[in-house]
Design a protein that fits this description.
The chain is mostly helical and 94 residues long. It has one domain. It is built from 3 helices and no strands. Helix 1 crosses helix 2. The radius of gyration is 32 Å and the shape is rod-shaped. The mean pLDDT is 88.
């Protein structure tokens, strides 16, 4: 064998290695994308649950506290009729 044949074989082996590496890398990127997608779905689901819990707490306050319910009704009817403390409380409830 001469040096040119050895060089050609080495280039062929190197090119094959690069192709195998690129296929492996593509599979890893695809798997990572799937993991990111699943994690995003879980985070969005957790956000929905947390939002629902906060909403339920707010409605619980309005149901269990006649003062909060009255303030909410009064603010809904006419925000301008509230005094400054009531406006702050109304804004915090909302």
């Amino acid at each position: 064998m001469n040096w040119e044949a050895i060089g050609a074989i080495a280039e062929l082996v190197g090119a094959t290695g690069v192709i195998i590496f690129l296929v492996y890398l593509a599979k890893q990127i695809n798997a990572n994308s799937d993991n990111v997608s699943q994690n995003t779905k879980v985070l969005l689901s957790n956000t929905d649950v947390a939002s629902n819990q906060i909403t339920n707490e707010l409605y619980g306050w309005q149901i269990n506290s006649s003062e909060v319910a009255e303030l909410t009704l009064k603010g809904n009817a006419s925000f301008q009729s509230l005094d400054s403390i009531e406006k702050y409380q109304y804004a915090m409830v909302l």
